[in-house]
Specification:
mainly alpha, three-stranded antiparallel beta sheet
Length: 182
């Protein structure tokens, strides 16, 4: 419930809506999608100045996290880990390569496969990135247990939303003689 919403079962004096809902879709501040969107924007805004000091953008930072963990990965593996298309990762890797943080290496057995690996300069940024992560956790006000719980819940939501397939819009049932569109 928001400060502007009446308690459940009450009629909103301004709109006459039960439960404080304004329209069929509900209020913006009641939407899960908006809470996720606003939280994502706030977190990325907090990261931006700290990553700028490392010479990284947030998307570049995500690619570097994959490489700090695995040292070398095929381009497609990086994309899959980040849940993005390979063509979305390529320009990010291009910029990281231009900065001397990664290099592309062709696969000796299959010329179609490209590996991305850290350079010593790229590997050297990892301790500074760890400090950025701790600064963001401190800014969030969350204890480590809360961070782990929230992350697990959000990853569960990602898995659930990924597993359900494309959304199907259903039309609201129309009242017929039996009370619904039977």
């Amino acid at each position: 419930m928001t400060p502007h919403s009446p308690p459940a079962g009450k009629i909103d004096d301004e709109t006459g809506d039960p439960g404080g809902r304004s329209g069929l879709a509900g209020r913006l501040d009641e939407q899960l999608c908006f809470a996720l969107y606003a939280a994502t924007n706030a977190v990325i805004r907090a990261y931006r100045p700290l990553l700028k000091d490392l010479g990284l953008t947030y998307p570049q930072y995500l690619v570097m996290l994959v490489l700090w963990e695995h040292r070398t990965r095929r381009l497609g593996e990086i994309a899959a880990t980040l849940r993005l298309a390979t063509h979305a990762i390529s320009p990010i890797v291009d910029r990281l390569e231009d900065a001397g943080l990664v290099r592309r290496v062709g696969d000796e057995r299959d010329g179609r496969v490209v590996h991305v690996e850290l350079t010593p300069t790229g590997a050297g940024l990892e301790p500074d990135a760890a400090a950025v992560q701790e600064e963001i956790r401190c800014q969030s006000g969350l204890e480590m247990d809360d961070v782990l719980r929230l992350r697990a819940e959000l990853l569960g939501l990602v898995d659930q939303m990924t597993d359900v397939g494309p959304p199907q819009l259903t039309k609201p049932a129309q009242d017929g003689p039996l009370g619904s569109n039977a």
